[in-house]
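User: I'm preparing a small set of examples for a lab meeting where we compare how different chains pack in three dimensions. I only have the primary sequence for this one, and I'd like the structure in token form so I can line it up with the others. Please keep the answer compact; I'll paste it straight into my notes.
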Amino acid sequence: MKTIDAIMNRHSYRGKYRNEKIPREDLLLIGEAGLAAPSGCNKQTTSLIIVDDQEILKKLHQVIIPHIGESAPAMICVLTRRIYAYRDRCFAVQDYAAAIENMLLAIVELGYQSCWIEGHITDTDRIGEKMAQILQVPENYELVAFLPIGVALEEISSPEKLSSSQRMWFNGFDHCEF
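Assistant: Understood. Below is the structure token output for the 178-residue chain.
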């Protein structure tokens, strides 16, 4: 698959997954794609925990509410560390966002589906902290997101997007030259 095809075919998948084990070499390749992402001042603030053990997945899904991705045969948990690049500048959010996007594209290219799950993981209910305890994550790391990974069981639908002319311009804001 061409990179541009993976970009255009990637969608957040929130449905059920087939009960098919994902080969570890695919999971490693997805993780490596994430770690190959750019990192502000090369501080490499992003780390990953790949989970394919069904017992550990069950424990994690007991604390993930609302239940999302619970039928996925694997997940990648995204960790970050707040390392300051210079003065008061920390690029941890940009670093893990780039890593997640790389992984989402690799997931699609390999024939799987996923969804970037972050909002309720880092919310006041502290689900990320509960997940981190299960995975024995050291205190200087924060679990900020996870990606369920698997083969889609349900039909994949694309959300409706605004047209390019509503969100992209040449040579200045609202200068349409399409």
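A couple of notes for your slides: DSSP finds five helices and five strands in the chain. The mean pLDDT is 93.

User: Perfect, thanks.
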